[in-house]
Amino acid sequence: MRTRVFLSLLAVTFASSACAVGTFRQVSFAGEVSPVIDSAGRTVHVVKNTEMQDTVLESRIRVRLEEFLLQQGFILASPDTAELYVLATFGSGPRVVGSTAAVFRPADVRVQRSPSGEATGRSVRPDRMEYLRVPSLENSVWLMVLSSDAKYYRGTGHIRNLWRGEAAMQGRPESLPVAAGYLMVPALKYFGKGTGQTILLDVREKDHGLK
């Protein structure tokens, strides 16, 4: 995955208060697409990832991917005939994700001016806490979805990735079964698309990507 750069190099101020932060999860996502083959509208097989220890979660993610691909017009096929393979893998470890930092802002005065520049009044903002979104390397849970050329693999035994995208968010390994639903949201939203840089999204519980 190419070097990740957050969409904004400047911290973004939260409009909400600290108590509102818990209503959504911050998820970072980056996707890469190969210019070699256009994967749209082809037959696809969602590969069972036998290396995942949590087989229940792996199955839930695989079923969700199949549902999504059908909705997008792909045709599910056997591994012997499919043109594309799609595989999901997940785990935990250090990732660059968005974190929230509380910053104290002292009271200040803003002068209001007319279009001509003449002072017309002033407003006072009291002492306050602002919550900034900043990139940081954190212990995280992550989900990666990959699409590869199935015909090429069957003919050569080598993998040629057409697209891969990785979503990550702060969390301990044991939180992965719950976090996976949030991680699925950007993985499906940007499936088959390159993001060019890491995107930071606020994913709410109602948008949870797993049943």
What does it look like?
With 211 residues, the chain is α+β, with helices and mostly antiparallel strands. It has a single domain (23-207), classed as Double Stranded RNA Binding Domain (2-Layer Sandwich), CATH 3.30.160. 18% of the residues lie in helices and 43% in strands. The chain contains three helices and ten strands. α1 (55-71) links the parallel β3 (43-46) and β4. α1 runs parallel beside α3 (176-189).
Helix residue percentage: 10-25%
Taking the sheet with the most strands, its summary is: 8 strands, mixed
Question: Quick one: how many beta strands?
Answer: 10
Quaternary structure type:
single chain
Short description:
By secondary structure, this protein is an alpha+beta fold.
What topology does this entry show?
Elements: E1 12-13, E2 24-33, E3 43-46, H1 55-71, E4 75-76, E5 84-105, E6 108-113, E7 119-125, E8 128-149, H2 150-156, E9 161-170, H3 176-189, E10 199-204
Parallel strand pairs: 3-4, 3-5
Antiparallel strand pairs: 1-8, 2-9, 2-10, 5-8, 6-7, 8-9
Features:
211 residues; alpha+beta; 10 strands
